[in-house]
């Protein structure tokens, strides 16, 4: 749950009742060369274009729904907007 604490995210970072069911399955042995044309982001480019990296996301679940599998989006239903609670005292709560 460290990333969720650093970013002060509410209901994220654990697999537990009451938390969002967000999860990514990563094949830590698989290598892949990053290509801009394969990016599924709004900007459609990557700073790692042309680099061969180890560790490839295989599947992603958002809110308990599988949304990505084997390089393809399988459900385009948007997730909920992230909620932040800076009163929790994470990294960003201490920066002005």
Describe the structure.
The protein is mainly β. It has a domain at 21-77: Urease, subunit C, domain 1 (Roll). The chain is 5% helix and 30% strand. It has 1 helix and 4 strands; from the N terminus they run H-E-E-E-E. A hairpin with a 2-residue loop joins strand 2 (52-62) and strand 3. It starts with a helix and ends in a 23-residue tail after the last strand. The relative contact order is 0.25. The mean pLDDT is 88.
TL;DR?
The protein contains one helix and four strands; from the N terminus they run αββββ. It is mainly beta and 96 residues long.
Structural descriptors:
single chain; 96 residues; mainly beta; Urease, subunit C, domain 1; 4-stranded antiparallel sheet; 1 helix; globular
């Amino acid at each position: 749950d460290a990333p969720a604490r650093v970013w002060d995210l509410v209901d994220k970072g654990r697999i537990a009742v009451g938390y969002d069911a967000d999860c990514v399955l990563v094949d830590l042995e698989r290598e892949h060369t990053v290509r801009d044309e394969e990016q599924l982001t709004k900007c459609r480019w990557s700073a790692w274009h042309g680099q061969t990296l180890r560790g490839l996301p295989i599947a992603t679940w958002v809110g308990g729904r599988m949304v990505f599998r084997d390089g393809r989006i399988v459900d385009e239903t948007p997730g909920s907007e992230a909620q932040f609670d800076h009163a929790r005292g994470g990294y960003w709560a201490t920066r002005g």
